[in-house]
Amino acid sequence: MVTHISKKDQSKQKGEHSDVAVNLTPWQKANLEYRKKNGQDATWSPTVIDGQEPKEEPELPENASDLPVEGGSRNPNGSFADRLPKLKYERNSVLYRRLTIVITLFLIPLLFVLYYVSPLSKLSAIHVVKNEAVSKNAITKAAGFTLEDGLWSQYWHRGENEAKIKQALPRVKSVAVGIEHFNEFKLTVTEYQEVAILEKGDSYAPVIENGKVLAETVKKPAENLPILEDFKSQKRILTVLKQYQKLSQELRASISQIKYTPTSANTELLNLLMNDGNTVIINISNLTEQLKYYPQVAKELKGKGVVDMEVGIFTYPYPKDNEKTKESSAENTTTDSNNNQNEINENTAENESQSETNNNTQIGQ
């Protein structure tokens, strides 16, 4: 069926197209001519220009700008309408980041102020650990920390407090101050060990491993520690103790007394009184090297005597005067014990006769 279009209709359509063409922008005109040459339709709708509502188009996926279209490829950057949701998302992301930074900048000082005024920023307790000879109260008192005072101000100056402890308490070798339970100090103490006893008349003073003689004294010396006699210099004591510490545990346990006996020719001379009754004469500088031969030499001795290691190794028995003194002291001890026994017997006899008299008196009554 052939349809005939009247001239009136043709003129009407031309008028509409002419009106549209008149209302087109320069860019739209150029685009329309380009597409006519290539036999393509315009992607924009003329009804927008006429003031008519465009037909609803189906929604495209987010990546629709990357999909190919008929008659050519879509703009890789997408249209403004396609990019609008992404711009909103990016703008909101930037806004959220800025808001987070602002809140953080205000929140950190606020938390700091709250912590500073709270009890957590005050020192609440002091704990002392690993102390043996020194009491916890003495260490706490010497430290000089103040409870309920600023925790961090005292912690940053803890070196001064550690020095106070070591100065007031010579037994303390080192102190480490740490924080536990948020607002409590933990003082880890390391002490010097006692290595000898220095004789001071009728009392004894402990000697620690750095060679220092403590001011405290005791009436009875500690067991398993050598007794030092006639030492006046702390430097000399430290030199002897360094050599003594190098000896084996067996040799250290066999020494009961170390006596400093210098002469005009030898200022390093020592007399060691051994637990087995022998005496060793030895130099301080040769103590470690020569004393290790003592167990073998002692086995070859037939009796108690002197082992002279000052120059070489020589042995000889004690002088007879010493033996006589020992024998006389033993005889005196025996005589005293016999006299005491006789007195006990006499007292017993008197008590028995007195008891018999009392019994007779009671019978007669």
Radius of gyration: 54 Å
Average pLDDT metric: 77
What is the approximate shape? elongated
The number of distinct β-strands equals 11
Cross-sheet strand order for the largest sheet: 5-4-6-7-8-9-10-11
Q: How far is the first residue's CA from the last residue's CA?
A: 179 Å
Which percent band covers the strand fraction? Answer: 15-25%
Under CATH at level 1, the class of the domain at 194-317 stands as Alpha Beta
Q: How many DSSP H or I helices? A: 12
User: What is the H/E string?
Assistant: HHHHEHHHEEEEEHHEEEHHEEH
Are there runs of 5+ residues with pLDDT below 50, and where?
A: 1-5, 14-21, 48-52, 63-74, 324-365
Class based on secondary structure composition and strand pairing: alpha/beta
Helix content: 40-55%
CATH-defined fold name of the domain at 194-317: Rossmann fold
Instruction: Report the major sheet.
Output: 8 strands, mixed
